[in-house]
Fold this protein.
Amino acid sequence: MLDARYSIRSHVGGKLRASDTGEAVTLAGWVHRRRDHGGLIFVDLRDREGLVQCVFDPDASAAAFALAERVRPEWVVKLAGTVRMRPEGTVNANLPTGSIEVLVTSAEVLNTSETPPFEVDAAIETDEALRLKYRYVDIRRPEVLAALTLRDRVTQRFRKELEHRGFLEVETPILTKSTPEGARDFIVPSRLSPGRFYALPQSPQLFKQLLMVGGLERYYQIARCFRDEDLRADRQPEFTQVDIEMSFVRDEDVLSMMEDVMHQVVKEAGIDLHTPLPRLTYMEVMDRFGSDRPDTRFGIELSDLSEAFAASGFQVFAGALASGGVVKGINAKGAGAWSRGRIDALNQLAIDSGAKGLAWIAFTPDGEVRSPIAKFLSEPEMAALRSALDVAPGDLVLMVADAPAVANEVLGTVRLRVADELELPREGHSALWVTDFPMFNYDAEEGRWSANHHPFTRPWDDHLTMIESDPGAVLSYSYDLVMDGLEIGGGTLRIHDAALQRRVLAAMGLDPADTEVQFGFLLEALSLGAPPHGGIALGLDRLVMLLAGKHSIRDVIAFPKTSSGVDPLTGAPDVVAGRQLRDVHLKHD
RNA sequence: GGGGGUGUAGCUCAGUCGGUCAGAGCGCUGGCCUGUCAAGCCAGAGGUCGCGGGUUCGAGCCCCGUCACUCCCGCCA
């Protein structure tokens, strides 16, 4: 909290209270608003801690009164006066300082201000591009200040809790080496090495592993990360991770450490997190929610209806089941009266998500059945369906028949849309672990297997034999922290054996010679006494966004970029002088 | 790369069928005002209707293109 030490102030205006009555104070801050009554002027003085009403009365000081007639919003002023209780009936219950005011006896203008491009007022919603261009004005708004303050508290709490658990904070390089896997790198040309480039880190992943090899045992860093990919509300080209790594741990050690730390951290936002958190496997969340980051604050879980339709004469279902697929469905309770157009929109969403279509049966509130497919279903099948999905009048059943992965993913998408449309309450917070992700995904575009988390993830010990023979079946020691349907963090145990690391990279189709060039330093480190280790990285921006109740991480970043990666304040990125390009060997004439 | 939304005064927005249609609130400037707190009252200034082109007797409105912002898909180990 702000105090008056080391400043031209004697007190912080926003912190004055009734107990300060009678104090002679010197304050400094911004003119928030001025109410000129002709013979008496009120100025709300604003500082980081809030507003305080300052009264200019010619009887107290003619000079100060004359100055108050000139001041304008956002002027920077220094005021001296006396704190006094407000007269009967003029208390402002909306302000923490509302029971007192400062009678000003002398005043000084420290700086004037042009009329600001928008008002510094929490009540007014302003175009975000304009806010970002004048972010330094925007930051004066209490809402922005509060978000940055919460971010500070969360960050400091992480530091404190990790410090108490024996972690050392270590900085890792920003100028580093491009790696072939993962996101597109930001690259930086080198002046001293013509034609060569640094890359900005996508995360400190390899360095934190090297710190474990270095015997640091417990490391953390509030680490800036860079990824040159398209932006989203929850994605910026540079963002911050709370990066953590531990030696001599099992996966449950990382999870329980993280739960203990998170329990303390979210207290900063007034949240009581009940630990241990639920732990669900990847298989289970995909099966039940159709998402690897499920929002469990509402129901509408997926049900497997394959058994109910095992002998179905309905070709769509029978065909899917015959080719190894499933029939799965959700019950959108209360959507039974939805219009055909509304349901068609869901069907289109399902098709866009990869399904051939969405089978639906509406059970209207007055007991009718409305459906293009009900006529193909037998009475026992309908009965089994009603029972499996707990159908009541007024419900809408939505089904997908397809390969399990497709059916799950499509219904997971439809589930979220339905919840939005039904305006199901998503209050409070739900946190959980998703564990045991598959080691590899098949990348159809590139025709090869790629790492699900990253290539340094340790496969299950008893799945090692399948790395070459059946990569898709290999599970890994991996875990994501999911809050309210957002991926807040993720981590793994790492491979600490050079030979195993080579096998995994080879399984991903990396040429052995390239492997040595790209990852030779890691493989060498693993062969020089690497301890078993693992860790996790939390997305600090996303976590604070969630705790602050914001919908974009831009709201919790001091100087964010627009969705095209531009900083409207500085104008970055921008052209540079030809001289600079020649220096780094990007231009030769 | 693709799809949706938005763009009119400093800010937030309205603008009907293409024809008093350049408008409101806030802010700003000036005046009045000694208990307001989103002060009040009176007056005033303020416009490349994102930009370019087209259709039309006539375009803020219709058409084409383009730019910016934003949301989503792809992408983000």
Observations:
- Chain A has a mean pLDDT of 93.
- Residues 288 and 302 of chain A are 5 Å apart (CA to CA).
